[in-house]
Known about the structure:
Layout lengths: L1 E4 L7 E2 H7 L8 E3 L7 H5 L6 H13 L5 H13 L9 E5 L2 E5 L9 H19 L3 E6 L3 H10 L5 E8 L5 H8 L6 E6 L3 H13 L1 H6 L2 E2 L6 H17 L7 E6 L4 H11 L4 E8 L4 H8 L1 E3 L19 H8 L4 H14 L1 E3 L2 H10 E5 L2 H15 L5 H11 L7 E5 L7 H8 L20 E3 L3 H13 L1
Parallel strand pairs: 5-15, 6-7, 6-9, 7-8, 8-16, 10-11, 10-15, 11-14
Antiparallel strand pairs: 1-2, 1-3, 4-5, 12-13
The chain binds pyridoxal-5'-phosphate (PLP).
The site of pyridoxal-5'-phosphate has 16 residues, from α11.
Organism: Aliiruegeria lutimaris
Enzyme class: lyase
InterPro entries: Ser/Thr_deHydtase_PyrdxlP-BS, Thr_synth_N, Thr_synth_N_sf, Thr_synthase-like, Threonine_Synthase, TrpB-like_PALP, TrpB-like_PALP_sf
Amino acid sequence: MKYISTRGQAPILSFEEAMLTGLARDGGLYVPQDIPQFSAADIAALAGLPYEEVAFRVMWPFVGESFTEEEFREIIAKAYASFGHAARAPMVQLGANHFLLELFHGPTLAFKDFAMQLIGQLFQVALQRRGEKVTIVGATSGDTGSAAIEAFRGLDAVDVFILFPHGRVSEVQRRQMTTPSEANVHALALDGDFDDCQARLKDMFNHFEFRDEVSLAGVNSINWARVLAQIVYYFFAATALGAPHRPVSFTVPTGNFGDIFAGFIARRMGLPIEQLVIATNQNDILHRAMTSGGYVTSGVAPSISPSMDIQVSSNFERALFYAYGRDGNAVAQLMDELKGQGGFTISQGALQSLRETFASGRASEEETLTTIARLCAETGEILCPHSAVGVKVAEEHLDATPMITLATAHPAKFPDAVEAATGQRPPLPNRMADLYERSERVTRVANDLAALEALIKERRAS
Ligand SMILES: *Cc1c(COP(=O)(O)O)cnc(C)c1O
């Protein structure tokens, strides 16, 4: 399988190269040249298999040339061994036809672990074989950073730097990033919001001299391998509820559009997904874009679901690429308008194509809190605020097709919001109960590209 850029001007790469590169050199994102097709029989055969076996079958057609079958099976086994639940992605029922897919049983308690644990293993095997080292720089609204640090801590071939918005992540998220003591881990608190972190990261990738000097690699959800790992649980959950014989719908709490874009790929591979619903918090640029056709940024308003406090939703570019009939020039033009004017208008044809695939909705802060309280009372299920945004929007889209809402984080990762809604403070799982006692290590940094690059060069050298 080869990978092409959404802006059409970057070299075509193998899976391994696309994974190690992250962002394409023309500023675009890598997507597979063709999307593998699964027949109804292929899909039916997944029902009842262990998560790791489903993962192998779903991902193998995308990676085939880069790893041997045996290597890839071992990578998958290691990636999910640290999960705290035998099913990896268990499902619980919320209502007659509404299910919750719990994606928070990984080591940092958010769905990001599904991709990041896999990427950690993939990088290690690929870099060892090449005898190379890389500098990973990631931007995070909280969960990507903790998941990346957990996946890469202590690996010799990798230095990992994580930029997070100072004062805008939860205490659990911050501590998961600042308490690992390994020398290759560097947590950087940036004076700005998540979009600033992401913008500086993109600047580093577009500064080729720096990029090449430090062998910059990216593990943000712009990295195709992240999306790939997330396709698996759509198949896993859908077949558990009767696909391909019975279609299902999904609602996905969305920020950077990576998780839901994986659902889009699953659908294109042949999985019968009827509705694919974008759920946003008050930072609702995606919902507004789907409603009006105008993708216009308006500044981030911090919310109780901080991992979705995003206005520049990177992976939406991938959805636009398909909506514009894989026209890289058209995508490049839209992205120029976004950078220059803070927004763009989606063409009628592309908007229609997006609406054929995606529905959307939003939840206010108040609605998020009342959803947490109501679900606790009605079902006993304690939702994190992100998952609650999903549940609220999913409830507006219920019909005869089973609806699966993705629960993206464990409630103990956001205890303040959960306590405000339910009066109960959700405890951390035993395996991380001492998190509040460990000492922290963090560097405060200005929102300044040159200063950041200098710091990274110095730290990685030492
Ligand atoms: C990252 C994250 C999201 C948003 O996922 P995207 O792939 O960025 O759309 C939602 N909920 C939680 C808890 C997250 O960590």
